[in-house]
Batch of 2 targets.
Target 1
Amino acid sequence: MAIADQINPISPMGLTLDAYQALCAREGVGPGRAKTAYQAIYRDGKTASPPAKITLPTIVTRHEEAVNEGTTIKFVQRLPNPDHRLANRGIDFDDIESVIIPMIGRSGRKTHTLCVSSQVGCALGCTFCETAQMGLIRSLSAAEIVAQWWAARFIENIKIDNIVFMGMGEPMDNLDQVLKAIACLTDRNGPALPMSGITISTVGRVDGLERIKEQVQKPGWKRLGLALSLNASNDEVRSRLMPINKKWNMQALQTMLLELRQVRGWRKIMIEYVLIPGVNSEDTHADELAEWMSPFLKDPTRKKGKGHGGLLNVIPYNPRRDSPWDAPSDELIDRFVNRLMRHGVFVNCRRTKGRDSMAACGQLGTAEIRKRKLISLTTQGRTDQEANAQ
Ligand code: SAH
């Protein structure tokens, strides 16, 4: 019997083929055999192919909702909570949510975007966001992030074209594991997603953006997408909505984005703006926002007729549970968007897909898991320690 048949199974979840082969080599399994096993898991959807074996979290809830483009599917995976301290308090599992969103592209082709979570809960406390209400429980490992793709691809049986880190959590608070997951997701022998199909969405931690600046200069990473959740047109409003703004304000963000643009061209960076009636939706806010975006509207490096100077994505607010604010009316959205366009800002409006299912932006966090508010609002420390320990 070959040695490889006697060894314990080795999971490739969250690993690149190179990393998997290195792990296998330590157990005496050759690179060829490791590659075949790796491909069986990621290409053929097998859960076992010696020495590879994966264990998947159970899907505890699944919700489908018909939308114009097809069907939005939200699924909740139940992960073990490895923290015994929490287990003593009756918390011995973690639920995370992922959403598969159908889209029709400009060419009419139907694509599917998977919205993944990077943490259980979130530490950042944005006042309009459902996930923030539960606080941070823990960060996910790269394997747990990639397992969301695996479930979408092989349990839901849907080919995923794009992945956005817009589910639960702040990717910049768990950047090591998020980057590791992306390396796996884009591995040609594995999930093989194009780098251009992946977008990290962030509240705008400037230290994290510095790291992204380094990362996108590495081979293969140039086309990674970035979305910045700006959500306000001035510091007073932004600090009220997003406490992180007290640490890195709008000026700091603008400077950082201009720097990033030097490296890699503006087209892969998108600004997100959750439109909340009575909070950030006045004409004056649109004017201020256009002013803040003005340095990005002129791009001397851009070829004539190619792309656009700056891209703003307006997201109509989905009222979270117990929200003091309503959803914006269509008239309000149109008025805000038109005013920005008159200033020359290229605006895209992402209408809600899945409002009823709580699968919409910022709605991730069930009543059940929300009760478990545990960890205070910090941005580093614990999160990174946990991530490194994985
Ligand atoms: N922490 C990351 C990713 C998760 S939130 C970030 O902040 O970008 C993903 C997007 O959903 C962000 O743009 C966020 O501003 C938006 N969002 C959060 N709550 C929302 C809500 N209630 N309605 C609409 N969009 C919301």
Target 2
Amino acid sequence: MNSELLRQYLTYFQDLGIRTLYRRSPAAPQPKEASPAALFPEAVESGPQALFGEAAPAEAAETLEQIRADMGGCTRCRLHQGRTQIVFGDGNPNARLVFVGEGPGADEDAQGLPFVGRAGQLLTQMIENTARREGISLTRSQVYICNVVKCRPPGNRTPEPDEIETCSPFLFRQLAAIRPKAICLLGATAARALLGAREGVTKLRGRWFRWRDIPVMVTYHPSYLLRPYNQNAKREAWEDLKKVLHYVYD
Ligand code: SF4
């Protein structure tokens, strides 16, 4: 393995929160070496495939409980200063579908749960009503919901890039632990954190991307859909959700 490939492997394991690597015993069967192309696939866009994305994870290394325990009373970024409590995530730890938003708001900060305010109620309705209309049996409790940053940004501002960078390894580890069939990113912050995308949601929505080996759909954040002049976006978000639900549950 050349040094650049080794560096990429180590960065990847670091993202997963793995700090210690052991050499395999010589007697153990040796894994096939992945090519750099497999680690960082080229952009392809047709169906749930890669446009942005990283390596396919070898295995889920830890549980959500272990990740939460490792987070502890985290003070790794300045967002800890204004929070009431950490909002780690909520839902089925074996979910086939994970929704990722931006960060907790006032209600979430008070209750310690993601998406429980007005935007959260809309998200719940969107998930459950769309599923029902499409003939899919699904409740909110069957999916997993979390955010890019786990502490409320002051005044509900957008998280700063350094805050996203500091907190997102926890998100990566959550996703690696759950290993869902698909991920639905709600808004531009989640798209930037997971896909490195710089485009706005209107450019990204409705298309399949990939994070590691998991298909990813980007759509609008529910708080954006609550604004009265965004009726078109509401319709588009329902369309995006239909695509994701059929992909995951058909
Ligand atoms: Fe820690 Fe994330 Fe909270 Fe920052 S936002 S203090 S990294 S848990």
